[in-house]
Amino acid sequence: MLMSSLAARLTISCALCLVALPSTLRSQEQPPHLRDRGTGMATSMFGTYVRKGELLLYPFFEWYADHNLEYKPEEFGHVGGEDYRGRYRASEGLLFVSYGLSNNLALELEVATISAELRKAPNDPSTMPSRIRESGLGDVEGQIRYRFQRETATRPELFSYFETVFPLQKNRDLIGTSAWEYKLGFGLTRGKPSGTYTFRVGIEWDGEDSKFDVGEYALEYLRRFSPRWRYFSMIEGNQLDEVEFVNEVQWHFSPRAYLKVGTGVGLTPNSTDFGPEIGIMFRF
Q1: Residue 235: helix, strand or coil by DSSP?
Q2: How many whole angstroms separate alpha carbon 105 and alpha carbon 283?
Q3: What architecture (CATH level 2) is domain 24-283?
Q4: Contacts of 78 (CB under 8 A, 6+ apart)
Q5: Residues 196-230: tens digit of each pLDDT
């Protein structure tokens, strides 16, 4: 009787421990190609996946520094169509929300508030002020994401997404979005012993210029080193002249939350020089 009671208690304790462990640890039970990310489908947030019936909330902060932001004085209501390079600084608080409607369909919403400053280029002779500062509502965007082929041992995962950026800042020049923007993209993910690789590419339509253009494209890498630590890196471009390198560390300190700390570094003149990010992802 004593041994039976002890065995029962041990079984219950082990079950409770399993429930309390992070999902990344339980993912060890998944096939090798799902070791890094589990069964969830990819979201637009780096190295983050959502499952059916799961709600993700991610409040985070970003800071931007760029010593040569390209601008035209006419974009700020002043005479002059020549390109100049100014000094740009911005801080942004954002909230990302994602919900898994099914195993293969998810919705997203991201809302930002931002404070930004642009310093006029020294060689700019226009009547534009030496400093322009704006603050308020930043970009507000929504996405629908669909996985139309799940990864197996012999074939990759395939997914697509459609994004809308809402024109909620029609009277601002430095922050927010003044015209409708639409983005359509496709991606491929493959899990390997060395890590998980994702390639994605998209096209976009800018309502302000009324034209289609090359959208975001990226090569991503994700690796789970332990039950609590994951590493993410990426080369990402926007159109053909804005390319940056992004890396991020994730600390899964709780079954329902993990810390994300990363930074982006510009690789081309038209990309932002430096953009660190920090936040906590909550799962419900």
Answers
A1: strand
A2: 17
A3: Beta Barrel (2.40)
A4: 126, 127, 128
A5: 999 999 999 987 777 888 889 999 999 999 999 99
CA atoms within 13 A on the CB side of 281: 23
Q: What is the structure's pLDDT at 54? A: 97
Identify whether the C-beta of residue 226 lies closer than 8 Å to the C-beta of residue 232: no
pLDDT (tens digit per residue) in 112-160:
999 999 999 999 999 999 999 999 999 999 999 999 999 998 999 999 9
Counted residue by residue, the chain has a size of: 284
Question: pLDDT tens digits for 139-152?
Answer: 999 999 999 999 99
| C-alpha atoms less than 13 angstroms from C-alpha of 138 in its C-beta half-sphere | 15
Instruction: Supply 230's token pair.
Output: 């994951």
Per the DSSP assignment, residues forming a β-bridge with 256 are none
Contact between 265 and 273 under an 8 Å Cβ cutoff? The reply is: yes
- Measured between alpha carbons, how far is residue 29 from residues 35, 67, 105, 187 in Å? 8, 48, 24, 25
Closest CA to 92 of 275, 256, 232: 275
pLDDT in tens, 3-54: 344 334 433 444 333 344 444 444 446 788 999 999 999 999 999 999 999 9
Mean pLDDT of all residues in 74-88: 93
Q: Tell me the average pLDDT of the chain.
A: 89
Which residue, 189, 197, 200, 202, is CA-closest to 162? 202
Give the three-class secondary structure for 117. Answer: strand
Domain ranges of the chain: 24-283
SS3 18: helix
Tokens for 249? 């560390």
